[in-house]
Design goal:
heterotrimer; A alpha+beta (497); B alpha/beta (501); C alpha+beta (104); A: 497 residues; alpha+beta; 3 domains; nine-stranded mixed β-sheet; three-stranded antiparallel β-sheet; 16 helices; B: 501 residues; alpha/beta; Amidase signature (AS) enzymes; ligase (chain C)
Chain lengths: 497, 501, 104
């Protein structure tokens, strides 16, 4: 078991420095350098051509929308856009990389020197400096056969599908984030979350972490408190949810602190995050000897975006997220705290879509931050990845508003949604969840409740109408929650007064 | 049966006039291949069935009055570095033995769309690395002038096929002289078009920023016909120039008048003298004198950076090649060598690349890996890219003084097989005069200049023009060809005796 | 990597470079190739210092920029064509020997 220092002790002795590298898989129709579909889920090796399969003689051609998406992301991150830049080959051998070099960008990224204002849970804003955003291509996917459950270690051989090879990626790299102290994990999470919101608003990616459209690598180093230096860093990969980003940073802070406090030094290496156990393990050692032999890609010509083109793209940018939050808060009538909680839970977009589907703002907030947030937390996924859509929430709320469901029954509908039982309406029917407002059935239940609670009935007859609550409760219990509470109350009062 | 000595242009006329069928023409060439190729070894693969089927289809089109192009039905040979759907493509390497591409190179598609039957794939130095075709993993090609001698390289197969009348036309590729130098030493014509003038899609890259596909023929006119057919913009090649090919055949006609009045010809001071065989220099001087006689004005130009061209080339090429050849890793296609035990993918890659690549390929991969390594990049690759700029500037200055530049194509005539095999530097010197054009991207042609007195073997003269002025090399090349042929009283190739036994 | 010596390459360097290039050179090959590479390198090392700081590099012989493809799907290969050259395949995928290295 790896030694960890307690988080408080770690922060008492060290200043953390964070760095985030986020890969965004674009939602273009085709791959970065060829006309193959860039969609998910095709049969293995059915979305390939000589180019993305790296066949001898094939040549790449740049996808215009890939470049436009990169520029738009750069602009949204307040970056400068290169007037002239080139693609470069990053040379290394790996079986899922068809050419044994990745077509990427090296010292001439398309976008550089930007920043993003990241709002934390308490409303404080941290400015995160963006070093660069550059274009590159994804690799194929390997399936490991033999050995235990698809793991690479112990596998006898691997099966490679190149459908994903060549799908456009934008890599967004921050400069080291220092001076945030104990809030480093929160800053990391909030940054990735707000970056995702931005990507979604730009409509350049599906941006789902659980699907791998958005992948975060977390760099962390510790320096002795007040020293102002940077320590040796580790790069943690495979972090695929917002809460994992936060947990991984926290874990690495504690692990680094334990190693350093014990008098050892940190190994510069890649580490892997394990979602299930909440720990990182050592991956490949990243020595300085690793030599990618970058050089300009001779089969592609430079990209030189005219300033006119850049301005045209700037005009397509969505509203600035901070301004947008202020506008939405006013429109929805949320308190500062309600708004912060909504943003902090990664629910802003979900709530917005739910409201757009006709749900009252407070009802939308109540579902996402209450019932659904609890379920996401229980299963350890991000809210956006829970599997419930704003449209479904709107349908459930519609059934509540129509009197078909009450809140308690609505929760059962969400159970059904997560179990894949169909649409909310189908679940209501399938599970027989609709509220009973039929007087015949209710009347019988009310009579039973009166008979069983004669003393309560007497109080009501004496004019103590507030006592009706006890009888309503009894009726609801008998009807297993499916009674229309308002109608039950009316019936009780009709019968007893 | 007589040798199929007819040029592609006259074959096209004969086909159009109905004097001959494509099946007959194609069969004649297949017969010639059967007769001489065991001695020449120009071909790695002969597609008898495919070529005859295409020829028959051509004859049907012709009969129906719907030929696809002027060259419909004229057979052609294709260098084995170009991807041919359904026809093995090895690049002269063991590592690609048996690989059958599932797609056609753009130039091959254009040949098919124009109705040219493909006779087969021609031999070459492995991955086009060499100047003698001796680095082919499948054995060398022999020079039809003297079977003990090299046919040049890397495209010795295409040049020898044309020189030995096995094919009227062939495609080659030229990275540092691989079309022009074999042309010179086999007494044939070879053209390296302007970089970007002909699509590279489907050309298995040696050095992407230097490679060009071009015609290998016996006459300048045939080269122009083939160049017009394969040239032009290709959206699949990002470095392809979006401009029309130009009237190259028209330029040949103008040149065939034998009149060069008003044409300024620059003799490049640095491409001659020391290191050049006297007989090669004598034939070159004779060519210059003939052009002067035809009205050309001759000026001497200096390109001082050309002395660094060879070093520049041997940094840029290996660097690009080392990365290009990384894809040959035994995972997706080609050779897979599995060492004993239960080797990892990594171990299989290493073993396969060791077994599948020849010495010259290994030398260049290691050199290129070195030139790109961190700590060396600026001193080598970075520096080479800068010298490349200086060489381009020298060309710009020279073309300010002259319309075309001329030099001997290669410093020597064909040397003996094996003579330079273990002396890489000596081998590299064969491309001294041809390399600058590749570095700057300018077009060049090699036409036969006659036989060297000391060995009776052919030499070539090279004509270079500014980028996109390919028509100039055709005009001057055609004029020179006409002046020399008139002097000789017939084509130089009529004097080749290597295959007469 | 050792210092750039300018004009020679050691057997160890050749071994390291072959390792980077994933070529399993035998001792005999190293003996054979290292001296040849040294000679070649000595010759091409003459290029150092030829061009000054102010000379821009040329990466492409013909200066084009902004060559793009529209984002439109074009037909590619069938899985059968894609796998036609594979040394081994299984489940419509390329079968490769076990991969050493990190968890993916």
């Amino acid at each position: 078991m790896t030694d960890l220092l307690s988080y408080d002790d770690a922060l008492a002795a060290y200043d953390p420095a964070l760095g985030l590298e986020v890969h965004v898989e674009l939602n273009t129709a085709t791959k970065m350098f060829c006309g193959c579909p860039a969609t998910f889920g095709g049969e293995p090796n059915s979305q390939v051509c000589p180019v993305c399969l790296g066949l001898p003689g094939a040549m790449p051609v740049v996808n215009r929308i890939g470049v436009e998406s990169a520029i738009r992301i750069g602009l949204a991150l307040n970056c400068s856009i290169a007037e002239w830049c080139r693609f470069a080959r990053k040379n290394y051998f790996y079986p899922d990389m068809p050419k044994n070099f990745q077509t990427s960008q090296y010292d001439e990224p398309i976008a550089f020197d930007g920043w993003m204002g990241v709002e934390l849970d308490d409303g404080e804003t941290v400015r995160v400096e963006i070093e660069r955003a550059h274009m590159e291509e994804d690799t194929g996917k390997s399936l490991h056969v033999g050995g235990s459950t698809g793991r690479i270690h112990g596998a006898s051989h691997s099966l490679v599908d190149y459908n994903r090879a060549g799908i456009p990626l934008i890599e967004i790299v921050t400069r080291p984030i220092t001076g945030v102290g104990e809030r480093a994990p929160e800053v990391a999470r909030a940054y990735v979350q707000q970056l995702r919101d931005l990507i979604v608003a730009l409509d350049v990616s599906e941006a789902r972490m659980d699907q791998g459209n958005l992948r975060a690598d977390v760099n962390l180093s510790l320096a002795p408190k007040g020293s102002g230096t940077l320590g040796t860093r580790t790069e943690t990969k495979n972090v695929n949810s917002f809460r994992s980003v936060e947990r991984a940073v926290r874990y690495e802070v504690q692990r680094h602190a334990a190693v350093l406090s014990g008098g050892s030094s940190i190994l510069q290496e890649t580490r892997h995050w394990h979602e299930d156990t909440g720990i990182t393990t050592s991956g490949r050692e990243k020595s300085d000897a690793e030599d990618y032999r970058y050089f300009p890609e001779p089969d592609l010509v430079p990209v030189a975006p005219s300033r006119e083109w850049v301005e045209e793209l700037r005009a397509t940018l969505p509203e600035n997220p901070t301004a947008k939050r202020a506008r939405l808060q006013a429109a929805w009538g949320f308190s500062d705290l309600e708004m912060r909680d909504t943003v902090g839970a990664g629910a802003l977009g979900l709530v917005e879509e739910t409201i757009a589907a006709g749900v009252a703002p407070q009802a939308a907030r109540k579902w996402w931050l209450g019932e659904l947030a609890r379920r996401a937390n229980d299963t350890g996924v991000d809210l956006a990845d829970l599997g419930v859509t704003p449209a479904q929430v709107a349908e459930v709320q519609g059934l509540v508003d129509a009197g078909t469901l009450n809140d308690k029954l609505a929760r059962q509908v969400f159970d059904g949604l997560l179990a894949g039982e169909g649409t909310p309406q189908q679940i209501v029917e399938g599970r027989g969840l609709a509220i009973v407002s039929d007087d015949g059935a209710l009347s019988t239940a009310v009579d039973n409740a009166i008979a069983a609670n004669p003393d309560v009935a007497d109080k009501i007859r004496d004019g103590k109408v507030a006592a009706a609550g006890a009888l309503i409760g009894a009726v609801m219990k008998e009807m297993r929650g499916q009674a229309d509470a308002a109608r039950v109350r009316e019936l009780i009062l009709e019968k007893l007064t | 049966m007589s040798h199929p000595r007819t040029t592609a242009a006259s074959l096209a006329d004969d086909l159009a006039a109905g004097r001959v069928t494509s099946v007959e023409v194609t069969q004649n060439h297949l017969d010639r291949i059967a007769e001489v190729d065991d001695r020449v070894h120009a071909f790695l693969q002969v597609d008898t069935e495919g070529a005859l089927a295409e020829a028959a289809a051509s004859d049907e089109r012709r009969a129906a009055g719907r030929p696809l192009s002027a060259l419909d039905g004229v057979p052609i040979a294709v260098k084995d570095v170009l991807a041919t759907r359904g026809l093995p493509t090895t690049c002269g390497s063991k590592i690609l033995e048996g690989w059958v591409p599932p797609y056609d190179a753009t130039v091959v598609r254009k040949l098919r769309e124009a109705g040219l039957p493909i006779l087969g794939k021609t031999n070459m130095d492995e991955f086009a690395m060499g100047s003698s075709t001796e680095h082919s993993a499948y054995g060398p090609t022999h020079n039809p002038w003297d079977l003990d001698r090299i046919p040049g390289g890397s495209g010795g197969g295409s040049a020898a096929a044309v020189a030995s009348y096995e094919a009227p036309l062939a495609l080659g590729t030229d990275t540092g002289g691989s079309i022009r130098q074999p042309g010179a030493v086999t007494g044939t014509v070879g053209v390296k078009p302007t970089y970007g003038g002909v699509s590279r899609y489907g050309l298995v890259a040696l050095a992407n920023s230097l490679d060009q596909v071009g015609p290998v023929t016996r006459t300048v006119e045939d080269a122009a016909l083939l160049h017009e057919l394969i040239g032009g913009h290709d959206p699949l090649d990002s470095t392809s120039i979006d401009a029309p090919v130009g009237d190259l055949v028209g330029a040949v006609r103008a040149g065939q008048s034998g009149d060069l009045s008003g044409v300024r010809i620059g003799v490049v001071k640095e491409l001659g003298g020391e290191g050049y065989q006297p007989g090669v220099l004598a034939r070159f001087q004779e060519s210059v004198d003939l052009m002067v006689g035809a009205g050309a004005e001759v000026v001497e130009v200096s390109c001082p950076s050309f002395v660094h061209a060879l070093a520049t080339y041997y940094l840029i090429l290996p660097a690009e090649a080392s990365s290009n050849l990384a894809k040959f890793d035994a995972m997706r296609y080609g050779l897979r060598v599995v060492p004993e035990g239960s080797p990892s993918a990594e171990e299989v890659m290493r073993a396969t690349r060791d077994a599948g690549f020849g010495d010259e390929v290994k030398r260049r991969i290691i050199l290129g890996t070195y030139a790109l390594s961190s700590g060396y990049y600026d001193a080598y690759y970075g520096q080479a890219q800068k010298v490349r700029t200086l060489i381009t500037r020298d060309f710009d200055a020279a073309f300010g003084q002259a319309d075309v530049l001329v030099s001997p194509t290669a410093p020597t005539t064909a040397f003996k097989l094996g003579e330079k095999l273990d002396d890489p530097l000596a081998m590299y010197l064969n491309d001294l005069a041809t390399i600058p054009a590749n570095l700057a991207g300018v077009p060049g042609i090699s036409v036969p200049s006659g036989l060297a007195d000391e060995d009776g073997l052919p030499a070539g003269v090279q004509v270079l023009a500014p980028a996109l002025a390919d028509d100039r090399v055709y005009r001057v090349g055609a004029a020179l060809e006409k002046l020399l042929t008139d002097q000789w009283g017939g084509p130089l190739l009529d004097r080749a005796t290597g295959l007469e036994s | 990597m050792p210092e750039p010596s300018g004009a020679s390459i050691t057997r160890e360097q050749v071994a390291h470079l072959a390792d980077l290039a994933r070529i399993d050179l035998s001792d005999a090959e190293l003996d054979h190739l290292a001296p040849q590479l040294s000679v070649i390198l000595e010759s091409i090392a003459s290029i150092q210092g030829v061009a000054g700081e102010d000379v821009p590099p040329t990466s492409h012989p013909v200066p084009l920029t902004n060559v793009f493809r529209e984002d439109v799907v074009v037909p590619g290969l069938t899985p059968e064509e894609a796998l036609s050259g594979a040394p081994e395949s299984e489940e419509q995928r390329f079968s490769v020997p076990r991969i050493l290295g990190e968890e993916a």
